[in-house]
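TASK: fixed-backbone design
INPUT:
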């Protein structure tokens, strides 16, 4: 079945689950994982889905999953009211939950005993029918932070963690079929096994990473977007390990206290600076330069030029080069967020101007980071490989291909293999 994934790594993980699950065996059509992080993101998948539904042949269906058709963690019974543009085509559409196991049990399509058996079978099937060479592994879903800019909380519901043994087993199954890299992800993954994603003092995430290092042989562990409030010295120290990728992505959002407070974030400027300073002091065993990324929202209501400059200077001071930034979305179509009607909305023109300034700064910092890597041996896990071409990412998240990376000559270049070599700096 053909598919299209919109949005985050969590969607990639559950897409793999659905495409490897027996429920879709023998069915034909198209699978779409939807995203609602901004109005623009919603518009993209809606447009794409409407185009696809018109191409369906007799007996085919459009299978929709992801945040777009969820409410409090289950299929939204009011989906066609929220998205009325799909109403004329509902006989050609099947709405799926995020997780196929939850869907099948809630719909009465599989009993509890068969559910357990299906989980065991699906671990193996996931590896054999992997959509991606690296494994996107959700360890925690949903969140109860209620940030005022966030719509995901309305879709996914309350914070839930997966058991450690189940996570380790899924990694081992992946390794047994030749897997090299696992990407730990979730809605608020650092809240793993805390009673709430607001209780960052209860997080057991460091112990999970330590267990993966000790009890599995996975070669590369990448950790997805992290909440600043969960960054403890013990956790940061784990990034000195060679098997943990030298890339740290923080959910920063803003560098200014007034904006963080109105976003309902759980950290302040002081905590941000402490965490970033600790990250910059990490001493990697392999001496690789650590790449820092950040999620940032520009133009949140009340954001002044002074507030914006605090974010700008934070990036500059700590050399944040991998920027995932976008202007604040009011979510005026379909669902909405609490901040959509806050006073002192920043004009769209000003949002875009600030975004352009941040991106220009990130480009400069990233060029400097690339230059630092010309003295290092890097490993690239190959995702795409043809006769004379290859591409994908290094351990510290540099996109490499045959033009900017020179492999050591004795290595075979095939999809799913790691190759070592030298990075060749090229001006962006």
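OUTPUT:
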């Amino acid at each position: 079945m053909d598919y299209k994934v919109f949005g985050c790594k969590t969607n990639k993980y559950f897409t793999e689950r659905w495409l490897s699950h027996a429920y879709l065996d023998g069915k034909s059509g198209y699978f779409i994982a939807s995203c609602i992080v901004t109005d623009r993101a919603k518009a993209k998948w809606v447009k794409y889905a409407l185009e696809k539904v018109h191409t369906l042949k007799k007996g085919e269906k459009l299978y929709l999953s992801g945040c777009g058709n969820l409410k409090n963690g289950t299929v939204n019974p009011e989906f066609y009211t929220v998205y009325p543009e799909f109403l004329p085509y509902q006989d050609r559409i099947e709405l799926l939950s995020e997780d196929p196991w939850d869907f099948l049990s809630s719909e009465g399509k599989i009993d509890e005993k068969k559910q357990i058996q299906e989980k065991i079978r699906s671990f193996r099937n996931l590896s054999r029918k992997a959509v991606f060479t690296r494994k996107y592994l959700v360890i925690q879903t949903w969140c109860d932070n209620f940030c005022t800019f966030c719509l995901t909380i309305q879709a996914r519901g309350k914070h839930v963690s997966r058991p450690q043994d189940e996570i380790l087993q899924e990694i081992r199954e992946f390794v047994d079929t030749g897997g090299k890299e696992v990407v730990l992800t979730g809605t608020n993954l650092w809240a793993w096994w805390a009673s709430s994603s607001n209780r960052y003092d209860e997080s057991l995430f460091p112990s999970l990473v330590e267990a993966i290092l000790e009890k599995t042989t996975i070669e590369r562990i990448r950790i997805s977007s992290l909440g600043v409030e969960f960054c403890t010295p013990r956790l940061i120290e784990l990034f000195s390990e060679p098997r943990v990728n030298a890339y740290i992505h923080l959910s920063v959002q803003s560098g200014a206290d007034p904006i963080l407070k109105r976003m309902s974030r759980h950290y302040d400027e002081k905590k941000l600076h402490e965490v970033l300073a600790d990250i910059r002091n990490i001493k990697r065993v392999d001496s690789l330069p650590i790449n820092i990324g950040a999620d940032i929202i520009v133009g949140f209501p009340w954001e002044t030029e002074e507030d914006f400059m605090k974010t700008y200077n934070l990036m500059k001071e700590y050399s944040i080069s991998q920027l995932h930034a976008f202007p604040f979305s009011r979510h005026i179509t379909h669902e909405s967020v609490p901040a959509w009607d806050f006073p002192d909305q920043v004009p769209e023109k000003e949002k875009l101007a600030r975004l352009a300034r941040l991106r220009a700064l990130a480009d400069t910092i990233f060029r400097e980071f690339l230059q630092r890597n010309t003295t290092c041996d890097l490993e690239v896990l190959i995702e795409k490989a043809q006769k004379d071409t290859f591409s994908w990412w290094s351990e510290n998240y540099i996109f490499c291909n045959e033009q900017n990376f020179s492999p050591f000559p004795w290595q075979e270049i095939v999809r799913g293999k790691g190759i070592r070599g030298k990075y060749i700096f090229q001006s962006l």
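COMMENT: The first helix runs from residue 9 to 19.
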